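Q: Structure for this?
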Amino acid sequence: MYELFKNLGNWLVTGDRWSGTDGIAHRLAEHLQYSLLATLVAAAIALPVGLLIGHTGRGAFLAINLSSFGRALPTVGLVVLVFLASGLSMWPVYIALVALAVPSIVTNTYAGMTAVDQDVKDAARGQGMRAHQVLFQVELPLALPLIMTGLRLALIQVVATATIAAYVSFGGLGRYVFDGLAQRDLVQVLGGAVLVAVLAVVLDLALSALQRVLFRHRPA
Amino acid sequence: MTIDWSWLADHTDDLTTLTVSHLQAALSAVFFGLLISLPLAVIAHRIRPLRGLLLGLSNVLFTIPSIAIFVLLLPVSGLTRTTTVIGLTIYTLVVLLRNTVEGLDSVPVKTKEAAKAMGTRPLRTLLTVELPLALPVIMAGVRIATVMSISLVSVATYIGDGGLGQLFTDGFQRNFPTPVIVGVVLTLLLALVADALLVAIQYVLTPWTRRRA
């Protein structure tokens, strides 16, 4: 065990391990690109849906069940399925990652919206606010902490799962995991896993810091 | 992308075996997850300084990709079912621990004080007052953990286990969609049925919540 960690340390700090197209820096950038793009697309789809469902109260059934459906969907199966349908492209990876992220964002946005006190919404309406003003100036700010929680959860899941890109021959930190697996090189697998975990934790901390700076008036 | 129905008819026995093995892995993981997270949750609930540490630790474990967890366990437990179950158990911990702590937190202080005033000892209060009252929140965690485990078993296909996940590798290697579609559908069905069963179990276990619902 000690030997393993010592080798891992060597693996991580070796200078030329970081450079080149299969170097850590490049793989990290790829992984970041897959994760951020997928989460952004998922947010662009899920935020309006969650806001709409939460605001109108219609489709609550969808919002609640979507999350358990999303959790139940086997990502590997989805990637292989889209891969067989679309051929060798990044589509399978992005579709699977977006499908993974959308439910967490929708359900948390919906939960945040429904947690807003009805009296507050009534008061806003009573002051003559229009529906869209109530939505954007009252409900959205109040629902924000939970919406951010949903985004952070989605991002963590996406970062951890983006390793799957390597399964269908693309890059990212999953390369180390899958190549290490093929070469029976445990240190490389461990290195990939540690990098992914560190990336996820760092991104999560960054988002929570961003949340604190942007919305200082509101306890997260 | 069409389904080859004759393949389906020829492989019903295999599918049954895979489904049973899939379910076994997922349910064992939830069982062991509960076994580990219950005492840890009680500790996290009672001893505040340990709370952030335990919850944070389980969060970090959650971020490690499941493929990597399975592979990393290979030197410890080899290409066996044990590896699958340990890997999945680690994943259930984050949900089970968080929900159980939240559930224990949700028990009103007055209720606990009433139990104390009646002379009920701490362990008995935990077992007969706190845990039952926390049950709805704990069960919500169990449902999430179960559905998540059922979906994650297929990742263990990389280490030669993985229940229905083996259908994904099979379809991928032979460029044949039918097993993949069947595997996805069966996984979703398993998850939905397990979730519905857990809702029924919770309904039976918590009669006092029914009037409010």
